[in-house]
Amino acid sequence: MDDLFSLNGKVAVVTGASRGLGQAIAVGYAKHGAKLVVSDVLDVSETIKMVEEAGGEAVGMNVDVSSREQVKGMFNAAEERFGGVDILVNNAGILRSAPAEGLHDEDWDKVIQVNLKSQFIAAQEVFPFLKKRGGGRIINVASIAGLLAFNQAIPYNASKGGSVQLTRSLAFEWAQHNILVNAICPGIFLTGMTNDMLEQESFKEMVKAKVPMGRHAVPEELVGAAIYLASKAGSYTNGHAMVVDGGWTCHL
Description:
By secondary structure, the chain is an alpha/beta fold. It has helices at 20-31, 45-53, 68-82, 105-132, 154-174, 195-198, 201-210, 223-230, and strands at 11-14, 35-40, 58-62, 87-90, 136-141, 179-186, 241-244.
């Protein structure tokens, strides 16, 4: 029987892959046989090195996901190097925190642009590549903030809620093309975005109180969900927002 979780022969594009969740997903995909295009506005050389150490092959690109031209170039590069695209992981994201009454327009616009609109741009641009291959997978990294609201993070909450609804809408439209679209909603993971917060005792205590498992996660703990959604194992999973949060959202 074929390995349900094998990604052999697949080509995956992962955005926001210089560190954290994107880096862990890229390395996990490489270990399961995928070839990678990894992108970020930051340096992705460490991720490429980790992919190669895992026995994989990767192309690194400096890409601003809010630029349609650069995103299109990312998929063209994947086709030129590896022959096409099978999997897109929309992971790039930012956080801007402020009380609602003091939120600046530019902060709202930037978060929505990077966290939400960029996912739609990437989905639109990858569509013809996936269709050419007879189908594929799109995985949008949302957040439990798309299901519940974090304090003083209105644009982030709105962008992640939009990501969940974008996922459902695309899943509904594109299933006819054998393109399955799902979201992952992580809880609190130790990443560059949360590192400073997790050094604060008050935040650590909040996580312990909210999460039944009593701790935050590390990026490698998201890899299994990302592999499932990209592999044969997830062949009938579509339009789903998969929560990986240690149980945070299972209680009031």
